[in-house]
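> Could you send the Cell division control protein 42 homolog prediction when you get a chance?

Sure thing. Input:
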Amino acid sequence: MALLERTSRHPALTCVVVGDDAVGKTSMLLSYATRRYPTTHVPSLFDNYAVTQLLLVVVVVVAKAVLVAKVVAVAIEAVVVVVVVVVVVVVVVVVVAIVVAVAIVVAVAIVVVVVVVVVVVVVVVIVVIVVAIVVVVVVVIVVVVAVVLVVVVAVTIEAEEAVVVLVGGGEAMRWWWCQH
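Output:
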């Protein structure tokens, strides 16, 4: 900290640069300070070339550490983004699979209901047709029996009248009935 305070008063070191290019600019400032000013105007720490180089190495190492930290942070962000994307994709796939499964179940249920309704309608139609046929057959049988009975009764009445006419009277008719 004392070094920073002492060097910050020097005109060549009043500008402090922070950023991705801090290493290069800091080394330029230190080189400029050692070349431009005689030893008497530069703080005594810069008199020794080895110390200057050591400071440059420290600055470079710190800057590299910052860059590595930035790279690690970006890598962590990338991993987090990838994990989030994978989780979102998995959730979407699961939701789509559930929706498709429900749709299939609903479709099958609808098909089953439609088939049951069709079968019931067909059975009802068949029963109605059979009942209609039975009713028609019964009506036809009743009509035929009625017609036959009417014909038989008519024929019988005609025959009785003919017998009465032929025999000619009450005594003869009683005789005919007794004979038959």
